[in-house]
Write a structure and sequence with these properties.
Elements lengths: L2 H21 L29 H12 L21 H13 L10 H17 L7 E5 L2 H16 L3 H4 L8 E6 L4 H9 L7 E4 L9 H13 L3 E8 L11 H11 L2 E5 L24 E4 L1 H4 L7 E5 L2 H8 L30 H37 L3 E3 L7 E6 L11 H20 L6 E5 L2 E7 L7 H21 L1 E3 L3 E3 L13
Length: 505
């Protein structure tokens, strides 16, 4: 494509992008599709001859844009929202234009050094000391894998890196029952096996219990196994609970274990001075992960891995064949590929540089505060509703609750009532999501089917949260009145009476 043709085409594409962002609410958040219904709309083979851009863009508008799950939609409350902000998207476009492979300083000097600069900016913004350095990866799964790979290497005197695990005592990793599944995947990938991860019991606030952690470590040492690392979470995926990092850090220090802190979701709130309390003790960690692509409005993908032990990360993953050696420089520089399993690396620092400069820290703080305020408002509506109950504390902006008609009061521990409540809330979730106006997800807390409303989309306004709550209340009352068909034709809730608080003011 010639430069002038590219210029014209790019204008058309940018117009499509801007129109999408301006009108994303015209789409249902979830497309009304069944699996396998889209493949048949596309040819079975790639075209032999070139096709005009106008046809490609027309097919994009008809086949792609309407059929994506719209993460940019302000009614997206599922999982943890990922929003692509305007400045982040612009940075992403320029990343694609430059094709700067940030594997070596030499392959893109500005990519390496701007990564160091923006990582430093973020470290300062969240209040961590200067001995933390870091880099960007794709996702928290990779960031945690890298950190735990370094922990494994350091714990074995690097024999695991050179000779593998065959000669090692069984290595043991610790995380709470609520820790993200990526930690278990890291155990699988690093050769520990799923059994190498010890799940530590949580309290009624879904926080890791330090005494249980210590007991698990003691038991494994007594069995001849080798504890090597602990993962503490600030903002678990299910409930956004906060492990007591300070107490866990003391245990890790006494036991000489690597402490990795997973703050992938909640870490962004540390840029708010008034929100630092949940992070007390994380400065003692060996490594920390925060995902700017969650709550700092950075287009996927961008995960920040910080560590006080960067040389251990390098020792775990450095491999420099002759064709990657740089022979013509006098000063030592950091080649980031030596700190990760991947060789090729994207110029993620560019979009972070755009975003941090465009919003400024105060602009980011204002938006995160607004999300926290919306979550607090939703908590108030739920607490005022006689037929709903929160199932976990809300330290950040994710609210966990269920619809519980008054006729279940005092019966929640009965097996039959518990099953009915699960079925009712599952049906509620499906009905609300089918509306197309919002998208919620669920988890299980203490075995109970739990609805989650995660507020973090850059475009979400108060009206969207109010509408989500109205849909939830309407679905809950209707389902309880009309009945929910579950299992083998058993109907629950028929003839039930409902009443409750009037919703948002």
């Amino acid at each position: 494509m010639e430069p002038e043709a590219f210029r014209s085409a790019a204008h058309e594409v940018v117009d499509l992008m801007a129109d999408y962002l301006a009108g994303v609410e015209r789409y249902p958040v979830l497309p009304d599709l069944e699996p396998g219904t889209l493949r048949g709309r596309f040819p079975a083979s790639a075209p032999e001859q070139p096709e005009p851009l106008a046809r490609i863009l027309s097919d994009y508008s008809a086949q792609v844009e309407p059929n994506v799950t719209h993460w940019q939609h302000p009614g997206f409350f599922a999982y943890f929202p990922t929003t692509g902000s305007g400045p982040g998207i612009l940075g992403e476009m320029l990343m694609a234009t430059l094709v700067a492979n940030a594997m070596l300083w030499r392959t893109s000097p500005i990519a390496t050094e701007l990564e160091e600069v923006t990582v430093g900016w973020l470290r300062q913004a969240i209040g961590l000391p200067e001995d933390f350095e870091g880099l960007y990866t794709d996702t928290a799964s990779t960031s945690s894998l890298i950190a735990l790979g370094a922990a494994r290497g350091a714990a074995t005197g690097w024999t695991a890196t050179t000779r593998g695990l065959a000669e090692q005592p069984a290595l043991r990793l610790y995380a709470s029952d609520e820790a993200h599944s990526s930690i278990e995947k890291a155990a699988m990938t690093l050769g520990l096996g799923r059994d190498g991860l010890r799940r530590v019991a949580v309290n009624d606030r879904f926080e890791m219990q330090p005494a249980q952690l210590q007991a698990a470590i003691d038991a494994d040492r007594a069995a001849g196994e080798q504890p090597f690392a602990v993962v503490a979470t600030i903002g678990t995926t299910g409930s956004t609970s906060v492990d007591p990092v300070g107490q866990i850090a003391r245990i890790c220090r006494q036991e000489k274990l690597w402490l990795h802190v997973d703050a992938a979701y909640a870490g962004a709130t540390a840029i708010l001075p008034e929100m630092r309390a949940p992070f007390a003790g994380w400065e003692q960690a060996d490594s920390i992960v925060i995902n700017p692509h969650k709550w700092l409005f950075t287009p996927l993908d961008c995960s920040l891995l910080l560590s006080r032990r960067m040389e251990d990360l390098r020792a775990a993953f450095s491999l420099v064949p002759e064709y990657l050696r740089t022979l013509d420089r006098d000063r030592p520089v950091r080649d980031f590929n030596e700190y990760t399993p991947q060789l090729g690396r994207r110029f993620r620092a560019l979009k972070m540089w755009f975003l941090l400069r465009y919003f400024g820290l105060e602009g980011l703080r204002r938006r995160i505060r607004f999300h926290l305020e919306l979550a607090a408002a939703l908590c108030g509506w739920i607490d005022a509703e006689q037929e709903a109950e929160r199932l976990a504390p809300t330290p950040f902006s994710t609210v966990c609750f269920r619809w519980r008609p008054r006729r279940f009061a005092g019966r929640e521990t009965e097996a039959a009532a518990s099953a009915e409540l699960d079925d009712l809330n599952q049906a509620l979730l499906e009905r609300v999501n089918r509306s197309g106006e919002v998208f919620l997800s669920h988890t299980r807390l203490s075995g109970r089917f739990t609805l989650r409303v995660a507020i973090g989309n850059l475009r979400t306004e108060r009206r969207h949260v109010e509408r989500a709550w109205a849909l939830i209340r309407e679905a809950g009352r209707t389902l309880d009145r009309e009945g929910v068909t579950v299992g083998e034709g058993v109907t629950i809730g028929e003839g039930a009476t409902t009443s409750g608080a009037e919703g948002p003011p």
